[in-house]
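Write out the 3D structure for:
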Amino acid sequence: MSNKRLQALSIVLLLLSLFTELSDSQGWISFNNPELAFGLSLGFVLFSLSFNVKVIRAMGIPEKEKKQSQRLTFITAVYAFLVFGIELF
């Protein structure tokens, strides 16, 4: 996959995680098992992070693409901390 596609897929996965969390908290979708929403959302975030790290570690890519993936990784990490870190307390 190209780096642009990986970055786009990463954004889509992050948005899916956000939608999953919102649908669970707002009651748009009722899950029989509350841990299912948590697991799906966490899985989306982990895949999003892994795609960005793959782009960052690629050799010979333009600096602009690398910086974009670093920003997306930071945003995803902050989102994960806010959603999952606070949810555990």
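The chain is about 80% helix and 0% strand.
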